User: Which sequence fits this backbone?
């Protein structure tokens, strides 16, 4: 593929959220993950009650798509052996039945045993709860909207759990894969969201808002699409995570220039309240730390050695799992330590 030589951009000296000034925390760097052109740094908001990280310079909106020329939202998931798949499915069902009321017909002993197994897996219980984005079992015909649905993997899972899912994404190749799964999906962004037929009982934004130049507008539109009492579930990288503190410019969660803003729990909670939603819980999780920290180790090594290809070797995998376990312990002392922020909010019932 021929890459566009430049992405047009402009300086962004003020915080896109609160308009306060900021200071540089990440010096301009190239996109060594997916080869987008340009040099991109991050600023941090000096307003202590905000603390947003934002990309500086910021790409022109009309050029944002150029950052995705080699970025795939439609990669096939890693295939697991059938034995491991069965075990993971068993533990997942135990967790979802025990904490989110999904009726999988497991006995009390099995849900307890499966939940104990979940605790000793590297990702912990969060890893299994996130497979349903912390959404409780739907009673009756409940509609779910997956914003940034990609190839529909999450939608298909939620359909098997009893939800009626619909999805929106800008990637036509990924959407073709979703359609092949028999899923209802629509191509586009905020304009498409404005045309969706309300109401939805749940809306999911999983690793989406950090990519958006209009995250506030999208969250407000989601609020409009929700039924009274409906649920918004959101997942995004955490700028205050242990991983960012350790790896800094090599932290996988930065991903310039596709990630435009990196949030923290405070600012995300404020955005949700400003959109008229009631936060139900906000927390951080180490469930994705093995992946994020493994890639951060590989990125640091690649930059140090001048290699051209990102390679995660065995010791990096072992170290990433070890760091993930340390992060799980750190979470007992600091709620902000996790690599990702999970937020669940509800629309007022009346
Ligand atoms: Zn700010």
Assistant:
């Amino acid at each position: 593929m021929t890459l566009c030589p430049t992405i047009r951009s402009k300086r962004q000296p003020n915080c896109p959220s609160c308009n306060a000034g900021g200071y540089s925390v990440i010096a301009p760097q190239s996109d060594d993950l997916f080869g987008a052109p340009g040099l991109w740094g991050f600023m941090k908001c000096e307003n202590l009650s905000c603390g947003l990280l934002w990309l500086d310079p910021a790409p022109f909106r009309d050029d944002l798509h150029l950052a995705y020329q080699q970025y795939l939202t439609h990669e096939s998931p890693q295939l697991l052996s059938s034995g491991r798949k069965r075990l993971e499915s068993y533990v997942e069902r135990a967790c979802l039945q025990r904490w989110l009321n999904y009726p999988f017909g497991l006995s009390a002993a099995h849900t307890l045993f499966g939940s104990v197994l979940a605790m000793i897996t590297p990702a912990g219980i969060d890893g299994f709860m996130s497979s349903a984005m912390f959404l409780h079992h739907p009673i009756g015909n409940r509609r779910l909207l997956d914003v940034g649905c990609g190839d529909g993997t999450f939608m298909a899972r939620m359909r098997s759990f009893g939800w009626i899912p619909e999805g929106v994404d800008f990637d036509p190749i990924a959407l073709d894969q979703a359609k092949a799964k028999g899923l209802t999906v629509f191509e586009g962004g905020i304009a498409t969201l404005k045309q969706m037929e309300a109401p939805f009982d749940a809306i999911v934004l999983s690793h989406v808002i950090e990519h958006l130049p209009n995250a506030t507008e999208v969250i407000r539109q989601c609020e409009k699409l929700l039924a009274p009492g409906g649920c918004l579930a959101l997942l995004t990288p955490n700028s205050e995570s242990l991983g960012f503190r350790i790896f800094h410019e090599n932290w996988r969660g930065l991903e310039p220039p596709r990630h435009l803003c990196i949030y923290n729990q405070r600012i995300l909670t404020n955005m949700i309240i400003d959109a008229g939603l009631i936060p139900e819980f906000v927390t951080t999780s180490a469930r994705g730390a093995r992946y994020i920290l493994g890639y951060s180790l590989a990125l640091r090594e690649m930059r140090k050695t001048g290699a051209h290809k990102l390679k995660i070797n065995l010791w990096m995998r072992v170290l990433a799992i070890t760091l993930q376990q340390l992060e799980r312990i750190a979470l007992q002392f600091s709620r902000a330590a996790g690599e990702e922020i999970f937020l669940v909010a509800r629309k007022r019932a009346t």
Observations:
- The radius of gyration is 20 Å.
